[in-house]
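Private note to self, pasted from the team thread so I don't lose it. Backbone tokens:
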């Protein structure tokens, strides 16, 4: 199948029965079936990228926390075992995020990870209050902001996936 506006083939993953209609008239900026499909493709790519980056970030951060658990525990005034368990849990969470990205519907996967990221943002921000040093507080709050940004990117991707049915 060739794209009506270009003489290049349309990849099979973008083909739908909805993009067989006529091209919108000049000035018609309403949502044609083809534009809805393109919006969904962009949302899917953004959602998949957000989940992949989230999993990678969790893997690296969790491993770093687990390796440096003794140093972190002295700065946060929490037991080393708790910090080590948190680091290992974050690494396991990274694997779970990658697994749901591959197996679940993208919308459901984004919702699950977004809700978990919102909860993690609040938890990490609360942990910053146990920090003994000012720079430790800033470091923990920076991680909280990073997690919140991932939640925001997942919410944005979910918004891009929504199709206006009217």
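Design output:
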């Amino acid at each position: 199948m060739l794209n009506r506006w270009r003489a290049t083939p349309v990849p099979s993953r973008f083909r739908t029965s909805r993009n067989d209609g006529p091209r919108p008239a000049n000035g018609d900026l309403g949502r044609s079936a083809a534009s809805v499909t393109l919006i969904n493709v962009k949302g899917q790519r953004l959602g998949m990228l957000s989940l992949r980056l989230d999993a990678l970030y969790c893997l690296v951060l969790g491993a770093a926390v687990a390796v440096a658990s003794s140093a972190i525990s002295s700065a946060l005034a929490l037991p080393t075992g708790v910090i080590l368990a948190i680091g290992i849990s974050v690494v396991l969470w990274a694997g779970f995020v990658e697994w749901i990205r591959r197996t679940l519907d993208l919308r459901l996967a984004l919702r699950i990870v977004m809700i978990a990221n919102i909860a993690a943002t609040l938890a990490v921000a609360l942990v910053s209050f146990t920090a003994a040093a000012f720079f430790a507080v800033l470091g923990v709050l920076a991680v909280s902001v990073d997690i919140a940004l991932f939640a925001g990117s997942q919410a944005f991707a979910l918004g891009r996936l929504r199709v206006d049915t009217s």
